[in-house]
Amino acid sequence: xxxxxxxxxxxxxxxxxxxxxxxxxxxxxxxxxxxxxxxxxxxxxxxxxxxxxxxxxxxxxxxxxxxxxxxxxxxxxxxxxxxxxxxxxxxxxxxxxxxxxxxxxxxxxxxxxxxxxxxxxxxxxxxxxxxxxxxxxxxxxxxxxxxxxxxxxxxxxxxxxxxxxxxxxxxxxxxxxxxxxxxxxxxxxxxxxxxxxxxxxxxxxxxxxxxxxxxxxxxxxxxxxxxxxxxxxxxxxxxxxxxxxxxxxxxxxxxxxxxxxx
Amino acid sequence: xxxxxxxxxxxxxxxxxxxxxxxxxxxxxxxxxxxxxxxxxxxxxxxxxxxxxxxxxxxxxxxxxxxxxxxxxxxxxxxxxxxxxxxxxxxxxxxxxxxxxxxxxxxxxxxxxxxxxxxxxxxxxxxxxxxxxxxxxxxxxxxxxxxxxxxxxxxxxxxxxxxxxxxxxxxxxxxxxxxxxxxxxxxxxxxxxxxxxxxxxxxxxxxxxxxxxxxxxxxxxxxxxxxxxxxxxxxxxxxxxxxxxxxxxxxxxxxxxxxxxxxxxxxxxxxxxxxxxxxxxxxxxxxxxxxxxxxxxxxxxxxxxxxxxxxxxxxxxxxxxxxxxxxxxxxxxxxxxxxxxxxxxxxxxxxxxxxxxxxxxxxxxxxxxxxxxxxxxxxxxxxxxxxxxxxxxxx
Lengths: 262, 395
Description:
The complex is a heterodimer of chains A (about 260) and B (about 400).
Chain A (H helix, E strand, L loop, with lengths): L3 H7 L6 E7 L5 H13 L4 E5 L10 H12 L4 H14 L3 E5 L2 H7 L1 H10 L2 E5 L9 H7 L5 E2 L1 E3 L7 H6 L5 E4 L16 H10 L4 E4 L5 H10 L2 E4 L1 H10 L4 H16 L2
Parallel strand pairs in A: 1-2, 1-9, 2-3, 3-4, 4-5, 6-7, 7-8
Helix pairs in contact in A: 2-4, 2-12, 10-12, 11-12
Chain B lengths: L5 E2 L2 E5 L2 H18 L2 H15 L5 E3 L1 H7 L3 E6 L9 H14 L4 E6 L3 H13 L2 E7 H6 L1 H9 L3 E5 L6 H14 L4 E3 L10 H9 L1 H14 L5 E6 L3 H7 L9 E9 L10 H4 L1 E5 L1 E6 L24 H8 L3 E7 H15 L5 H13 L8 E6 L7 H7 L7
Parallel strand pairs in B: 4-14, 5-6, 5-8, 6-7, 9-10, 9-14, 10-13
Antiparallel strand pairs in B: 1-2, 2-12, 3-4, 11-12
Helix pairs in contact in B: 2-4, 4-5, 4-9, 5-7, 9-11, 10-11, 14-15
């Protein structure tokens, strides 16, 4: 398969990608459609679409509350697929899904990833499916050319080699212990972890969890191949609701501009 | 498929990468500890001297006569220190945590029994303790909140989701993923990612180890059935475990059917759940057509959980154990019945098991016996049952 994810990094002069996250269905699915196009327009290289789950145990309050709003609005996995089909009429931006194992398992791995392939979705991020358990899902996702994105955390230590030697798409480096959410500073010394990853693989790695401003985005992208931003975008939706589009555009643009200087 | 911690297809380690090394260390440390005589002596010594084990296997003569069938024996976990079986597991895990160099315990709790047991052991061993409890449950079980605070624990009322046990587990897991260095998550049931279902089962297996010896002493033969209530399933697996190989012993788990399995207000996972992946394990869960975890209901805060431990899902799948739904109303009647008949006020959770025994006792002959695991005492439930019966209590 052509590696659309890798191309999303390489198309920028410095080889760095800005990865933005949005919860599908918050405040409603039509708004998400509009937000995704705005993010793409603002230069978001990869967009992670969160399919809302009732019990998002890897999320901090911001994304958890967004999931609650999305589910209250009646969002379902099928509605998310329909929305992505609409996006595809307008944009070929690189897309990944982020959700929890149960939603994909329950939908049926084959049925889910066949849909992904049809909609040109390049990757799947499942925070509750570590290396030890990924095979049941990855063996199916790869049949449909969907990369199972591996995560590395500050506590991975001796596991980095094992995880990264099989990594595809990009590697999601979790900046900090705990759950997603805006942090005033990222205290983990990530350089040794990135160095360790580089020894094992040339798959691009991007840092996420806690990145909320252009300075952090630039710093994290300097250290790695990109920055992943979720809660800071979702917070804009929380604040402006359906009217969030232009604010998301401005924010993503400022983050992308900073990242290009990394 | 990861073969680690599997019971058939159930179990596994569906958890964030951040916690994986901690789970691996926990498993290694546990395997070392369980083969270390000094660790086992330490556990046994606290179980005997502090918790008051072995717990009695009491022949309920009046109940037996009244029901007119099998001899009814009550395994009196309600007499365990802190009033339930929960302490068995907490003693084991807390000593294990100390061995790993941890100084802080966190735990989820539903009815508050596991929270109280964790707070108790933390006080005893001089460890810091923080408990996560759904806000709804802090109201249903206000006395237990105060009890935990009295024992020196901090209680966090969880305000997300249904504000019950499931949400308490979510927040305890989140807290653990933030801080593993000095903190052990003292999980209270046979659920969650491997190695918890195995560790908790091993520490609760003392129930059936004792019960088997006791019934053989009293009856000279094995019981016809062992009955226990099931939420996550820790008291049930403890009561079943040493009888699993004895194929003639029926193992019966009683699930909370709330207002009925034909309503949407129940927590009967085996009766109404489907296969899924949640809280670190592949097991059966109450969920909707898209895999969103369902808001479940039971009068009993301790059984108000949308999943079931993977070993129970397995025992059910191979037909070794059977699982039956028991409604709120049936449980309340059993609560009142045991109080009046034997002078024992059982926990509303345990009352689910008693209710089922009341239904089936007469199907057995008088030379057969049934063991009911009375997993906890009912003092904590008196106010809630009074409310259920429309009685106004005043202090």
